Prior knowledge:
The mean pLDDT is 94. The strands form 3 sheets. Strands 1-5-6-8-10-12-11 form a 7-stranded mixed beta sheet. The chain has a 6-stranded mixed beta sheet with strand order 4-3-2-13-14-15. A two-stranded parallel sheet has the order 7-9. The protein has 7 helices and 15 strands. The protein is of the alpha/beta class. It has a single domain (3-301), classed as Purple Acid Phosphatase, chain A, domain 2. It has helices at 37-53, 56-67, 86-103, 119-123, 126-130, 172-185, 217-227, and strands at 3-6, 14-20, 73-76, 107-109, 142-147, 151-156, 168-169, 191-195, 214-215, 231-234, 241-245, 248-255, 271-278, 283-291, 297-301. The two termini are 30 Å apart.
Amino acid sequence: MQVRFLPGIPACVFMRILHFGDIHFWRLQLDRDFYYPKRILGTANLALRRRHRFPPRLAWDVMAGIAAEEADLVLFSGDMTTMSLEGEFRDAARAFVPLYEKWGERLVVIAGNHDRYSPRSVRLQYFEKHFPRAALPEGRRVFSRQAGEHVSVVGFDASRPFMVRSNGLLDENLERELNSELEAAGGCGRKVLLMGHFPYSYPGGSPGKWHHRLLREEVLARVIARHQPVAYLHGHKHVRWCLRDTRTPRTLCLNCGPAGMSSSSPDSHAGWLTFNLSEDGSLTGLEKVSMAPGGDLLREALRIPPALPG
């Protein structure tokens, strides 16, 4: 178990938490593994469509907006790049500098599937090279951070390269590691925030697309039902939501939506989530924030569904 104590968390009744992800810095260029099928498809998609949906200027404006926010803890749930190109990681690392300068170890980062895009990018450890504070010991995919006296943040990496799909995989080894970490993190009555990249639950109860979902997502639901973290924070699907799943009635599922995408829908346009977490695990003051044209921030309170029976 890797536990790190986060400095600078105030001893107060609640802490303010900012959650963002899916910023997707991109570069339209070829890498040495240009022949990898997913790179061929991804490059074509970026050239024809995706670069218009993720304008670079918007990503930089969002990062500046986040840097101006007041929060005790900042959580990034993956997908800082588009195709795991080293140039994309360099851009992302440069954009994250003001956030690390402001929050230091109180900025917690995990990788998403776009940050594990090809076997070569994983083998060369581009993510670990450019985000050394987020790197885990060899063979580890789960970590824990103690945020103050009452809260633990547990993060896990279910991302891996697939030849053409955008799936994640919660394999049996990761399942065991996650169970062990959650057991330890929740000790002594500490409240736990769990962060991954992929959802296991969707609005309306509809399943994720076969080529885009977390494989063995039902196992993640069982793990969460067993340990009952206060909330599961994720991204991947480019729309903000707040829901509870009947399989995990005590845990709130929070999707921060995309930080870098331009959309006519405020739930999908570039933005993030903020909320308060009290010492007793009560989550309040949930807001979705999106960036309007001109850089103004639009804030909207979200209703938090009560815990379900079970």
